[in-house]
Write a structure and sequence with these properties.
Elements: E1 2-3, H1 6-9, H2 19-30, H3 36-43, H4 47-59, E2 64-65, E3 78-86, H5 90-98, E4 103-108, E5 115-121, H6 124-135, E6 141-148
Antiparallel strand pairs: 1-2, 3-5, 3-6, 4-5
Helix pairs in contact: 2-3, 3-4
Amino acid sequence: MVSRSADSRNRQPSTSVDAVSLAIIEQLQEDGRRPYASIGKAVGLSEAAVRQRVQKLLDQGVMQIVAVTDPLTVGLRRQAMVGINVEGDLDPVADALTAMAECEYVVMTAGSFDLMVEIVCEDDDHLLETINKKIRTLPGVRSTESFVYLKLKKQTYMWGTR
């Protein structure tokens, strides 16, 4: 699976991504293990040129290549989105959340919540402990609202080149 890195979503890229690099990203999004030679044939470059471009995209933080698992199959049976309201500066709370292993996604938002956090836990007890003992006790956290996932219908990472 190929996605843009969290850091790249928060800043303007230092260099623009050209059409050939976008085509390489699309090839990797279809199959993150696709051989460079195969990608090269699809985009009109040599295997070595594809390898160099992929490394540059990784080094610049434009994308990352990772294995995506189904949390249920690896023993993580409870997921939730948690909306958090914060008093004062959001950065220290967001930084503390990003350091928590249970927090997979942390975003600052406009609207009803200051922060939205996706949490992946082993079970309901682990979820309760994470929210009650780790998140609600952070300095600055004023309130939380939890949205427990009942069923995941769609999760894709194909938006990177639209």
